[in-house]
């Protein structure tokens, strides 16, 4: 089976302990992740008083840091230009946090007010311009919280980052404009309760955070109708289904117009990496992309579900699609969702998200067209 091959992290699972790691990750995720509220119905759920899943914020921050470092970037002109249109030399730690939360996590202006000022960012949480809860320096944060610093004990904040891990001893975080000028993006740590901490903010949301499945006679129909309910055109949704049927054996290799097969969220397939497997509807491959696979397991566990749960996999897939680097680089999720050709959508999916073998991509387009013709009037 074809599998996604893009690596989004340098974190790798140890093959001898992969099962134990997954079990530990699942329990850890259940214990520490802050889960968003999930509503009823087929559309993406929203709530005005829910906390955002911290793992999504951490994943987004890590992805941005890895992209920054892999490209050998220095300084913050990328983020300054995004915020103000100018490379004006301004401090960019708050701008970096804003960039991650808006462009990678997908927070709307109604949830988070982007700014290049650390103090304004903190005050926005205090006055309600950004949704969230502020905490004093004695607070032990959770992954995904925002940490504010007051290095000189001046009573104001002048550095900010995103917490990745924390306990009663230390806090690990990622920040931009770190170190000597022109600054870089990197991981750092500070003692819990340090006098150099100004405070924290836990983000709340009015944003897309998960889905509940639409009805359907089989899994492929449930996913298809869920995509439609979340703003995908029939053509673009058909392109996704055309790929997913091939991922878990629901397509017919001899007759790609045959769509009688189904999507299998419990599929676990051996890969070319010894002792490694690909899981679920997307075939998240722990050999090629261990970090993506691990985060899929974590996300399912954070909802109190096994990794085989279709609804959880679809929720995670949609979030991953929206933040995936190749998708963003080649037009973004809105371009994909609005496509008017099942073949175009299937090709975009295979090229930028599934990253499957070249020889399989034309067949996926045929399957996508067959699905569209069968369901366009339903």
What is the straight-line distance between the termini? 30 Å
Detail the poorly predicted runs. Answer: 1-50
Q: Any idea what the shape is?
A: elongated
Measured by DSSP, the beta-strand proportion falls in 5-15%
- Please describe the biggest sheet, giving its number of strands, its sense, and whether it closes into a barrel: 7 strands, antiparallel
How many H/I helical runs? 13
Global structural class: alpha+beta
Order of helices and strands: HEHHHHEEEEEEHHEEEHHHHHH
Rg, alpha carbons: 21 Å
Give the fraction of residues assigned to helices: 25-40%
What's the average pLDDT?
Answer: 84
Number of strands: 10
Question: What does this molecule look like?
Answer:
The chain has 378 residues and is an alpha+beta fold. The protein is 40% helix and 14% strand. The chain has 13 helices and ten strands. The chain has helices at residues 18-32, 54-70, 77-84, 93-104, 118-127, 219-229, 234-247, 290-302, 310-323, 325-329, 332-337, 342-352, 361-375, and strands spanning 50-51, 132-135, 146-149, 159-166, 170-178, 184-191, 197-205, 268-270, 277-279, 284-285. Strands 1, 2, 3, 4, 5, 6 and 7 form a seven-stranded antiparallel β-sheet that branches. Strands 8-9-10 form a three-stranded antiparallel β-sheet, covered by helices on one side. Strand 8 (268-270) and strand 9 form a beta hairpin. The radius of gyration is 21 Å and the shape is elongated. 47% of the residues are buried. Mean pLDDT is 84; it is low at 1-50.
């Amino acid at each position: 089976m074809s599998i996604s091959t893009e690596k989004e992290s340098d974190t790798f699972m140890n093959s001898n302990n992969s099962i134990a790691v997954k079990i530990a990750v699942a329990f850890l995720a259940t214990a520490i992740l802050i889960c968003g509220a999930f509503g009823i119905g087929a559309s993406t759920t929203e709530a005005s008083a829910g906390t955002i899943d911290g793992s999504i914020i951490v994943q987004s921050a890590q992805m941005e840091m890895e992209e920054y470092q892999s490209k050998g970037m220095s300084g913050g002109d990328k983020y300054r230009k995004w915020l103000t249109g100018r490379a004006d030399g301004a401090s960019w730690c708050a701008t970096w946090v804003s960039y991650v939360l808006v462009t990678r996590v997908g927070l709307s202006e109604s949830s988070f007010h982007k700014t290049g000022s650390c103090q304004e960012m903190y005050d926005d949480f205090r006055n309600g311009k950004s949704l969230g809860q502020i905490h004093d320096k004695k607070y032990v944060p959770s992954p995904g919280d925002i940490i504010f610093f007051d290095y000189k004990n001046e009573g104001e904040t002048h550095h900010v980052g995103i917490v990745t891990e924390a306990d009663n001893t230390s806090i690990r975080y990622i920040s931009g404009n770190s170190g000597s000028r022109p600054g870089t993006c990197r991981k750092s740590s500070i003692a819990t309760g340090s006098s150099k901490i100004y405070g924290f903010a836990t983000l709340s949301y009015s944003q897309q955070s998960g889905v509940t499945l639409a009805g359907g006679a089989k899994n492929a129909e449930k996913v298809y109708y869920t995509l439609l309910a979340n703003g995908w055109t029939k053509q673009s949704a058909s392109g996704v289904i055309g790929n997913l049927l091939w991922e878990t054996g629901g397509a017919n290799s001899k007759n790609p117009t045959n769509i009688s097969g189904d999507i299998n969220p419990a599929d676990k397939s051996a890969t070319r990496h010894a002792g490694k497997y690909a899981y679920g509807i997307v075939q998240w491959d722990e050999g090629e992309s261990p970090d993506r696979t691990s985060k899929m397991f974590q996300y399912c566990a954070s909802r109190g579900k096994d990794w085989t749960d279709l609804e959880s996999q679809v929720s995670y897939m949609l979030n991953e699609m929206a933040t995936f680097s190749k998708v963003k680089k080649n037009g973004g999720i809105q371009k994909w969702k609005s496509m008017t050709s099942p073949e175009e959508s299937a090709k975009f999916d295979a090229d930028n998200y599934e990253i499957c073998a070249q020889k399989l991509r034309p067949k996926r387009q045929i399957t996508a067209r067959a699905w569209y013709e069968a369901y366009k009037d339903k």
